[in-house]
Structure formats: structure tokens, C-alpha cells
């Protein structure tokens, strides 16, 4: 079996993680501190927020300020989510260089999340992606409810294929497959990746697992064997999804890095330094440190 030599990690904690915390939990300065500390661990791709309606997600209302204050060194990518033209304009004004549009394979989910059907979202994103590209902005696509929708249950693989094709065809350079509820087990993930690979190259896909049912690392292993080389994760397992009731945290970045290094797969990340960041943000948010590897390593450090 051939495993990839190197994996690209997309750190989603400052966006996917913090969007689930109570509004104003962290000050702007602390968000900047979190992002810069994550970058200092060697993470090169960090989602720093989203330009969405502050009425829907007040937690992300300071994304413009965050982007303006971060200095993006060569080789770093600070990304933001954008749902519509208004969001794109705000992202451009704040100096975004990369955005992500987000939809799903289930109408029930997109209706809750972005207040439109999947077809409407694709129709809306097409000109938006083109407009972004003409400004030199790279666009990623998110496809949530890969296997299971929190509102309508099992998702047929034809729906996933159709949305994935549409996102790639409109110009997204990559589609992140969101296993939103975290319910899927290994054979489900293997099945959907096999279905996608029949018509599309898996090099265009990333995976985004939630650990709600403790399946995230097992599903990462399945994705690695299938040839996926980009994986989303969130420091200290922060996160969930405000539109997926009961969804607990994302796959913890520390657990992912521990697995990858154990398998001899390179990342750019200093795990011990990342553990310091995970412990700090958990303490700051008054939460237990939810990364298993992170917590174990933290407890072994001399100062504890
Ligand atoms: C999509 C909308 C905007 C539609 O929301 P809407 O209410 O249908 O939009 P609207 O166009 O009717 O506008 C309503 C109000 O929102 C404002 N508005 C409208 N757009 C913007 C914007 N871009 N920035 C700032 N403000 C905006 C707009 O100006 C207006 O303000 P008012 O006139 O009432 O004062 C809304 O539903 C929304 O913001 N939803 C939040 C969605 C979200 O962020 N979800 C979480 C991310 S997805 C996720 O977590 C899953 C993922 C990616 O991690 C993968 C996985 O795990 O599966």
C-alpha cells in the first residue's frame, strides 16, 4: 500500500472552531494571537473567518479586521468563507487572497445553513467564482453532508457527485468533502471516495471530518489509502457546525499530526508547539482540551 509522502493540512479552528463558541468569547487581539501562534507551528493554510451575515453568525463579524491585521508571509494562505457577492466584496476590501464558497449535497442542509437550495447556491456561486478569479483570488469549494444530513438523513452518492462536478467545473481548485454529522464509518467513506474516483480525480478533493462519533481518525486513514493528500482539522478539536445540531468538534489537528508523523508522513507542523496552542485556547475558552494526543503530550511536558 502506497501512502502519500506529505499531507497538506488546512487548519480551520479560527473559523469552524470559533463560529461555534458564544459570540465575543475571544477579543480580536486574542483571535490574532491564535492565528499567529498556529502559523508559528508551521501550519501554512489557515481559515481565519467568514464574511457571512452577522445576524446569523455574530462570531465571525470581525473577520475583515482580522484579515487586515494579519501579515501574510510568503508561503502562507489565510482563507475566508464567502456565501454571496456581499461577502466577496467585503473579503476583497479586506485583502483576501483566497476564499471558499460553501454548499452541500442536501437541500435540507443548505436551506438551514445558507437559506437556499443546493441548485440556487450553485447558480449563485458560478458568477461569484468567476468574479473572484478575475481578481486573482483562488477559490475552494466546500461540499457538506457528504454521506449524511442532520435534517434529511442518508445522502445519495449521485447528489454528491453532481455537486462536486459543478464546483470543480465552475472553477474551484479543490473541493473539501464535509462529513458534517460525523456519523459515517470507514466503509461509508471508502464507498463514497470510490464512487467519486470513478469519474473525478481524487487529487481535486480534501476531506473534512467531524469527530462527533469518534470516527474521524479512522476515516482519515481510509482517505489516505484512497490517495487524498489534503485534510482539514481544527486545533484542540474546536468546532462543530451551528447548523448541524449535536455536532461536536472537528478532527483535532494535534491528533491528525500525531497520526501522520507516526505513519512517516511529513507535515510542516511542530507538534509540541501546536500542543501549547491547543492547551492555551482550550483553557482560554474554559473547555477541556479535546485532542487526545494533544492532552497526553501536554501532560508529559515538564512544567505540568
Ligand atoms: C448566506 C446568508 C448570508 C443568507 O442569509 P439571508 O438572510 O438569506 O440573506 P439576505 O441576502 O436576505 O440578507 C439578510 C441580511 O444579511 C445581510 N447579509 C447578507 N449577506 C451578508 C454577508 N455576506 N455579509 C454581511 N452581511 C450579509 C444583509 O445585508 C441583510 O442585512 P439587513 O438588510 O437585514 O440588515 C446567511 O444565511 C448566512 O450568513 N449564513 C451563515 C452560514 C454559515 O456561515 N454557516 C457556517 C459555515 S458552513 C459550515 O460550517 C460547514 C463546513 C464548511 O465547515 C463543512 C462541514 O462541516 O460540513
Can you offer a commentary on this structure?
- Belongs to the HMG-CoA lyase family.
- By secondary structure, the chain is an alpha/beta fold.
- The chain has helices at residues 13-17, 28-40, 63-69, 85-93, 107-113, 118-134, 157-170, 186-199, 216-226, 253-262, 271-284, 292-300; strands at residues 8-11, 45-50, 77-81, 98-104, 138-144, 148-149, 153-154, 174-179, 205-209, 230-233.
- The strands form two sheets. It has an eight-stranded parallel beta barrel with strand order 1-2-3-4-5-8-9-10, surrounded by seven helices. The chain has a two-stranded antiparallel ribbon with strand order 6-7.
- Strand 9 (205-209), helix 9 (216-226) and strand 10 form a beta-alpha-beta unit.
- The longest helix has 17 residues, at 118-134.
- It is globular.
- It starts with 7 loop residues before the first strand and ends with a helix.
- The mean pLDDT is 95.
Task: Report a brief summary of the structure.
With 304 residues, the chain is of the alpha/beta class.
Give a quick set of tags describing it.
304 residues, alpha/beta, TIM Barrel, eight-stranded parallel β-barrel, 12 helices, binds 3-hydroxy-3-methylglutaryl-coenzyme A, hydroxymethylglutaryl-CoA lyase
Amino acid at each position: 500500500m502506497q501512502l502519500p509522502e506529505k499531507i497538506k493540512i488546512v487548519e480551520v479552528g479560527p473559523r469552524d472552531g470559533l463560529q461555534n463558541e458564544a459570540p465575543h468569547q475571544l477579543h480580536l487581539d486574542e483571535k490574532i494571537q491564535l492565528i499567529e501562534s498556529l502559523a508559528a507551528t508551521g501550519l501554512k493554510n489557515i481559515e481565519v473567518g467568514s464574511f457571512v451575515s452577522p445576524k446569523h453568525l455574530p462570531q465571525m463579524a470581525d473577520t475583515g479586521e482580522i484579515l487586515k491585521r494579519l501579515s501574510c508571509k510568503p508561503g502562507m494562505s489565510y482563507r475566508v468563507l464567502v456565501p454571496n457577492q456581499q461577502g466577496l466584496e467585503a473579503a476583497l476590501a479586506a485583502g483576501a487572497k483566497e476564499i471558499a464558497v460553501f454548499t452541500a449535497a442536501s437541500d435540507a442542509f443548505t436551506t438551514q445553513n445558507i437559506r437556499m437550495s443546493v441548485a440556487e447556491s450553485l447558480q449563485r456561486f458560478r458568477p461569484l467564482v468567476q468574479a473572484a478569479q478575475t481578481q486573482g483570488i483562488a477559490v475552494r469549494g466546500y461540499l457538506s453532508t457528504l454521506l449524511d444530513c442532520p435534517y434529511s438523513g442518508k445522502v445519495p452518492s449521485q447528489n454528491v457527485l453532481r455537486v462536486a462536478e459543478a464546483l470543480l467545473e465552475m472553477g474551484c481548485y479543490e473541493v473539501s468533502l464535509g462529513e458534517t454529522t460525523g456519523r459515517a464509518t470507514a466503509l461509508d467513506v471508502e464507498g463514497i471516495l470510490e464512487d467519486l474516483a470513478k469519474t473525478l480525480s481524487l487529487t481535486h478533493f480534501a476531506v473534512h471530518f467531524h469527530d462527533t462519533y469518534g470516527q474521524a481518525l479512522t476515516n482519515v486513514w481510509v482517505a489516505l489509502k484512497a490517495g487524498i493528500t489534503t485534510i482539514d482539522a481544527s486545533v484542540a478539536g474546536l468546532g462543530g457546525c451551528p447548523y448541524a445540531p449535536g455536532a461536536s468538534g472537528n478532527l483535532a489537528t494535534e491528533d491528525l499530526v500525531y497520526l501522520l508523523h507516526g505513519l512517516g508522513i511529513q507535515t510542516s507542523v511542530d507538534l509540541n508547539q501546536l500542543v501549547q496552542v491547543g492547551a492555551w485556547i482550550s483553557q482560554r475558552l474554559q473547555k477541556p482540551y479535546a485532542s487526545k494526543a494533544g492532552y497526553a503530550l501536554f501532560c508529559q511536558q515538564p512544567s505540568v
